[in-house]
Structure formats: C-alpha cells, structure tokens
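Example 9 (inverse folding). The structure is encoded as follows.
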C-alpha cells in the first residue's frame, strides 16, 4: 500500500537532456488529467514543495526520496 492518494499504479516517462542543452536543469511534469496544468520544476533535490494540496507534490516527494537514497549510495 502506498502512503498517498494514488490508484494502483503510477507511470513515469522521461527524457534525459544533456548538460548544456536548454532545460537540462529542469523537470517538466504533466498530469494525465487535463484539468491540472503542467509544472516546470528545478531538478535540485532541495526543490520546495508547492503550498497546499498541489498534485505535483506527489511527484516531488518521490523525486526527493530517490535523490536522498542516491546520495546515501554515493557516500
């Protein structure tokens, strides 16, 4: 069981942008539900969460967890 209000699955697709190319320092997230607008986020692990119950916070919490775990592996 996931500790979030998600259905049975979560799908993420991505495209890596090489450093030096436009957008290499950003993450653009889209929701499959058209009523939620796309958001451009920093790719830094210290990216702040949105105020309130913003849909992109689900993505950010997962992203921050992956980045924290990745830093632990490196050290």
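The amino acid assigned to each position is listed next.
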């Amino acid at each position: 069981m996931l500790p979030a209000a998600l259905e049975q699955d979560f799908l993420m697709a991505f495209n890596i942008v090489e450093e030096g190319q436009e957008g290499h320092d950003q993450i653009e997230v889209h929701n499959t539900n058209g009523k939620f607008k796309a958001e451009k986020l920093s790719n830094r692990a210290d990216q702040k969460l949105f105020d309130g119950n913003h849909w992109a916070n689900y993505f950010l919490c997962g992203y921050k967890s992956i980045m924290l775990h990745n830093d632990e592996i490196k050290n």
